[in-house]
Specification:
The chain has 103 residues and is an alpha+beta fold. 31% of the residues lie in helices and 36% in strands. Helix 1 links the parallel strand 2 and strand 3. It starts with a strand and ends with a helix. It holds the Pfam family Ribosomal_S30AE.
């Protein structure tokens, strides 16, 4: 599942090769953007990458998020066996901490 959309003037690019994302993930992505927007109003783009590495019991989910802002972009990644929504909240919180440091 790959898609691009414009949400509140922010370009969202989601790459999820070989991953079927649950229906609620798009809504969670919008909530994450709303949360990030409270800490900076200069977000140009959000790039998300969902992937699964390995198979069977060794499968690991990987979620990366790049927040495009003026100056250096912020990026975080989460790896593990958690649900996508849990991992999305974790990378959002990591990016918020980076945005707060840059202020």
């Amino acid at each position: 599942m790959n898609y691009t959309e414009n949400y509140k003037g922010i370009k969202i690019d989601v790459q999820a090769p070989q991953v079927d994302l649950p229906d609620g993930v798009q809504a969670q992505i919008r909530k994450a953007i709303d949360k990030l927007s409270r800490f900076t109003n200069s977000i140009n783009a959000i790039d998300l990458y969902f992937n699964i590495s390995g198979t069977g019991k060794t499968a690991e989910r990987i979620l990366g998020m790049r927040v495009g802002v003026p100056g250096p972009d912020v990026f975080s990644e989460e790896r593990g066996k958690d649900r996508w929504n849990t991992m999305l909240r974790a990378v959002t919180d990591k990016n918020i901490r980076q945005l707060q440091k840059d202020k």
